[in-house]
Amino acid sequence: MxxxxxxxxxxxxxxxxxxxxxxxxxxxxxxxxxHISALESDLKxxxxxxxxxxxxxxxxxxxxxxxxxxILRLExxxxxxxxxxxxxxxxxVTVGLASYSMAPGVAVPLLRAVRERYPNIHLQLIQNLxxxxxxxxxxxxxxxxxIYDPGYxxxxxxxxxxxxxxxxxxxxxxxxxxxxxxxxxxKEASRLDFVMPNELHxxxxxxxxxxxxxxxxxxxxxxxxxxxxxxxxxxxxxxATVLPLAAVRAHFAADEVRVHRFADARLRTxxxxxxxxxxxxxxxxxxxxxxLRTLLLDPAVPVRGSV
Length: 307
Hints:
The chain is an alpha/beta fold. About 40% of the residues lie in helices and about 25% in strands. Helix 5 (about 105-115) crosses helix 11 (about 285-295).
C-alpha cells in the first residue's frame, strides 16, 4: 500500500473537499483524484462519495481512516528515528491527554523534561475524550494516553497513577448554591443549571451517576466539548459545571469562579496511563512514559490543583 496515497486520503477526509485538499497538498485536483481512485482500486472498495458540497467518507473509508492514522504515524516515527542515528534516544512519541482532567496540567512539564533530556524525541500531545483515546492506543494512533480509567478495554492496559475528586464550579457572579461555607449538597446543586461535556465523558457519567443514586436530576442545559467554550459559559453565569481542582486552576482565574466540595457524596474516579497490551512501547516511548510517571509523583507539578 502506498503510504503517500494514504496521506492524501486522510487529508481529503479531514478537509471534506478535493479541491481544497489539493491546494493544501500543492498538487493538482486531477492528480489527487487519480491517487484516490488508485487507492480505491487497490483496496477494491469505495472510500469517498462525491456530493454537491464536496466529498463524504464511506463506511469503508472511515475504517481505513482509523488505520491510516496509525500507519502514517509509524512511518513518521521511523523516519525521525532513522535520521537521528543510534547515539541518542529518538523517535516520534504521541501522548493522549484526557480533556477536563488534570492531564493537560502535566503537558508543559512533560514537554520541558523531554526537551531537556531527550532533544531528539519528537513529542506530540493530543487532547480528547477518554473513549477516543483508549481506542487510539489500541489502533496505534497514539503511544500512550493519560486518561480517566474506563474499566476493562480489550487490548490495552491501565496503570493507575492517581485519583481525581470532582467539585462543583459556579460563576463568582452567581448566587451561592450552599447555605454556608464551601460545601454543597447534591440537593442544593440539583437546583442549578449545568454546562457539561456530553454523556460519553467520564466527568459527565460520574456526575449523572451520583445525582441518580441520590434520587435527583442533574439539569444539563448545554453540552460543551471545547474547554474554552465551557470556561466562558461558566464564568458568564450560563451554568455551573463539575471539574477536578487541577482543571479548575488550569481554566479559571481565582476570582472568576467559586469551587464547592460535595458534602454528601464523593464524585471521583481513577486516572491511569493507558498503553498497548501486546505491542511493546518503542524505546523512546518507554522513556517518555517513565518521565510522565515521575512527573505525576512530583509535588511541584500541578496535577492535583488547589483553590
